Amino acid sequence: MEGRSAEISKAAFLRFPVYLRYLKAEEAAGVEYVSSSEIAEDMHLSAVCVRKDLALVASEPGKPRLGFAVKKLICDLERTLGYHRKTHACVVGAGRLGRAFLVYEGFEHYGIDVVAAFDISPAQVGALSGKPIYPMERLKEIAEREEVRLGILTVPGDAAQAACDAMVEAGITAILSFAPAYVRVPEGVTLRCEDLAASLASLISEAEENN
Amino acid sequence: MEGRSAEISKAAFLRFPVYLRYLKAEEAAGVEYVSSSEIAEDMHLSAVCVRKDLALVASEPGKPRLGFAVKKLICDLERTLGYHRKTHACVVGAGRLGRAFLVYEGFEHYGIDVVAAFDISPAQVGALSGKPIYPMERLKEIAEREEVRLGILTVPGDAAQAACDAMVEAGITAILSFAPAYVRVPEGVTLRCEDLAASLASLISEAEENN
DNA sequence: CTCGAATCGATATTTTTTTATCGATTTCTA
DNA sequence: TAGAAATCGATAAAAAAATATCGATTCGAG
User: Fold this and answer.
1) Given the DSSP bridges, would you call strands B87-92 and B112-119 parallel, antiparallel or unpaired?
2) Which of A75, A94, A165, A187 could form a disulfide with A117 if both were Cys (CB 3.0 to 4.6 A apart)?
3) How does pLDDT run across A2-32, given as a tens digit for each residue?
């Protein structure tokens, strides 16, 4: 789209948010310049890897002996990651996890606005911290009206496929699923599954290897 | 540790939980045998990749013309992923997200037992669905008593480092952090950061590329 | 003002991961 | 019972990613 994006490797793209976090911590500590080697040491990466990654995003080259300007780098990373554009999102499944997402304020900095939640149970319908919770029947109507393109799926496993189908039907093109189930989506819809339990389990394996 | 584990590539290990999900769905649908090519097509992977992955975990070779026995494969995957052993976990930060983890029942199948939550605010102390919520001061005492090795960090960003330090001090060796902050851990402690907002944002980028 | 130390960025190499090719095996059908 | 179809598993090739090496640049100390 912007010419350069295709050149950024998938693995590097996953590291960008981590750099961003790190840099914001440095900025808060009053640091103005930071070098690849410093970042590498703190983040347990190779210095060359960091330099290559930063070269992909930095709008101006790093200065020898000094490194990169922290503030500038933060802007570049946020732009590359697309945090400047606004996207409307909704939560499907207003259980504990879904409600946590609905009211979480951290999404704003990432250009994401969670506008509503939906649930099949009338008991959940209402509002939370000013965010509305609608019955599932109104998903399509509201998603279209609010131009919701992103959906967060937090329903029980056995309801996942049906809920997912409803989201697709409502015009949602990107779905982040926390439902413990295998779901299918048609071509043109991007699905990512975050299996929190599996993620935890793999973390244990990793920790055991590290001893 | 078990001789073979070192040969399993990191990328493959990340695919295993997805296979497991898929296979369980197939099992539920009454399927007995499944071939690499079928899995590949459904999961949008290459058939060769699937075969190589399955060869890493399968205790018995697949049968030509039939494929792999679904039930057997599920067992093999669960064993490889370590879902058979029990690990005690705790939640640090009993906000909405933390409480969702505390009562989530899906961890059991993965060998994880969330035994308690901790929070700095006395208002949160109590219990939820039979799971106790203790004040932070008791973290070390209880973590040691219950042999908690895994911690789920769900505190606000500005409290993350302090909470993390307390977890390390309490003998926790693996930490899954959802706190929106960059935290440091000493050598020997495994940290994984799940940035939900960043994950969502990257999903948007991915979806836009797919158009 | 000059020298030295430390960083950057580019090129090259190694390692890892994914994909392709091919013969062997086995089940199903005729 | 015999042949065809489709899968497996192993070896080989290609692609991707991480790591190493080296000259060029520039800030800061003397």
Assistant:
1) parallel
2) A94
3) 334 447 898 999 999 999 999 999 999 999 9
Structure tokens at A62: 């790093």
Nearest alpha carbon to residue A170 among A124, A139, A136, A131: A139
B76 touches strand D (CB under 7 A): no
3-state secondary structure of B25: helix
| Token pair listed for A77 | 């990373």
Chain B residues touching residue A87 (CB < 8 angstroms):
204
DSSP state of A127: E
Which 131-190 residues of chain B touch chain A by CB within 8 A? Answer: 149-150, 152, 173-174, 176, 180-182, 184, 188, 190
Contact assignment for A200 to B112 by CB distance below 8 Å: yes
CB pair distance less than 8 Å for A192 and B206: yes
In angstroms, the CA A48 to CA A105 distance is 35
pLDDT at position B1 is 33
B131-166 burial code (b ≥16 CB/10 A, e <16)? bebbebeebeebbeeeebbbbbbbbeeebbbebbeb
Distance in Å, alpha carbon of A169 to nearest chain B alpha carbon? 17
CB contact at 8 A, A38 and A66: no
Q: How far is B30 from chain A (nearest CA, A)?
A: 15
Q: How far, rounded to the nearest angstrom, does the alpha carbon of residue A175 sit from its chain's CA centroid?
A: 11
Give the pLDDT confidence of A63-112 residue by residue, as tens digits: 999 999 999 999 999 999 999 999 999 999 999 999 999 999 999 999 99
Task: Say yes or no for a CB contact (<8 Å) between A193 and B21.
Answer: yes
CA of B52 to C1' of C15 (A): 19
Contact, B82 vs B107, CB < 8 A? no
Would the CB atoms of B111 and A201 count as touching at under 8 Å?
Answer: yes
Percent of chain B predicted with pLDDT > 70: 97
